[in-house]
Amino acid sequence: MTRTRGRPRRNPGSPTGLGSEQDILHAAGELFVTKGFGRTSTRAIAEGAGLQQASVYHWFSSKDEILLRLVLGTVIPSHRIADRLLESDAPGHVLLWALAYADARLLHEDPQNLGVLYFEPALDGDHFSEFHEVRDSLHEAYRVLLERTTGERATDVDVAMVVGLVENVITYRRRTRSPIPDDTPARVADAALTLARVPDLLTDETRARGTEILAALDPPGPGSVD
Amino acid sequence: MTRTRGRPRRNPGSPTGLGSEQDILHAAGELFVTKGFGRTSTRAIAEGAGLQQASVYHWFSSKDEILLRLVLGTVIPSHRIADRLLESDAPGHVLLWALAYADARLLHEDPQNLGVLYFEPALDGDHFSEFHEVRDSLHEAYRVLLERTTGERATDVDVAMVVGLVENVITYRRRTRSPIPDDTPARVADAALTLARVPDLLTDETRARGTEILAALDPPGPGSVD
Question: What is the topology classification, in CATH, of domain B1-60?
Fold first, then answer.
């Protein structure tokens, strides 16, 4: 268990075992998703994290900053994977399958399904431009890989539909009380190639190569996906 | 302009021109979508509608009831269309195309994009079971038409992906500041057939028959789509 830095804690020990900053993010994520961003006070976040309210302000300047960190956490890992896939000289369809699979898997595995926060009106504010930039850049990677796959120009609607299939993991989880099927990420990646209208390229070999390329990317340490 | 029933109005005239009940729904929709459900007071709704707060309680027992009416309005029209399509003996793929097209078109044309409220945590409460039942029943119609199209059993993930393509209209509108392309509903309906893996059935004839069937359903009067 990591020892806390900063202000004195109300309760000994960190609920997440990862220190105050992560405790705050975890408690805030839980409250934002179950009660709503607008109905969550900094005081409630502090209580959820087992901290004094002053400690929350030691780590984050505002509730907006906490929300920003949470939504950035839903796109940065996929964006990093996308950046590395774009450098690969593997065939476009293998890379598109790999990106859709990795991105859908991250959304599937997020314990709090924080993607539901994409619909929070506060995200329209200027504080959140970094989130929108990373997300747009991730979607641009889908466009590039879609074009490499089909050899044709991809329209905004083409890209939106592939992105929509992937982000639908968030909605599907939100809609379904019970856990969604484990094969959802692979099915989503298959559907991305189906939508790209390259049925002949949707093979076990494509899936195997995509999985292999992702395994070679996974750095050991925090943030990697097992 | 419809004259108002009920309590006296603070301002003469109805902002929507449709009377107090619609004024309340319109003002609440605007506030829920732009500020968030949790941060909207009944007082603010009354002000937006140009009414006294007491008038809001004359029409709706609570903010939850207003939210229920708003989200029901996003699924009931499509659900009615689905019910009638299910009775048709036209081929499954024509009906699936028609349902996806009509549903996507309604989501596309909703001036407030109220589907973003699907992510409001309050919808988990018992008050909202009617909404979940109608929405589930709409999704069941997709399952039936998907199975008629392919002749095979559709899994939950199959259905979720087709539904996800359609509901992605909400997310796509939310993500894009400018209006999304006008051909989005038709592209979504095409994509539903592509996902069903019946490329040979995705023809101009399918689209023409689907459009014709929908035109024959449209009842004249309020709620019909031109």
Answer: Arc Repressor Mutant, subunit A (1.10.10)
Residues of B in contact with A156 (CB under 8 A): 176, 180-181
User: Nearest Cα to A195, choosing from A78, A87, A84, A100?
Assistant: A100
* Chain B nearest-CA residue for A119: B116
Q: What does the alpha-carbon distance between residue B180 and residue B130 come to, in Å, rounded to a whole number?
A: 30
Domain A20-60 has CATH 1.10.10.60: yes
pLDDT in tens, chain B (226 residues): 444 455 545 555 788 888 999 999 999 999 999 999 999 999 999 999 999 999 999 999 999 999 999 999 999 999 999 999 999 999 999 999 999 999 999 999 999 999 999 999 999 989 999 999 999 999 999 999 999 999 999 999 999 999 999 999 999 999 987 899 999 999 999 999 999 999 899 999 999 999 999 999 966 545 444 4
Q: Which of residues 8-47 of A touch B (CB under 8 A)?
A: 33-39
In chain A, where the domains are located: 20-60, 64-217
Assign a CATH topology to domain A64-217: Tetracycline Repressor; domain 2 (1.10.357)
Pairs across A and B, CB distance < 8 A = 112
Contact between B211 and B98 under an 8 Å Cβ cutoff? The reply is: yes
ipTM of this complex prediction, to 2 decimal places? 0.88
Tokens in use for B197?
């893996």
Chain B contact for A203 (CB, 8 A cutoff): no
Tell me the torsion sign for CA atoms A53, A59, A64, A70.
negative
CA angle A75, A19, A67 (to 5 degrees): 35
Residue of B nearest to A188 (CA): B161
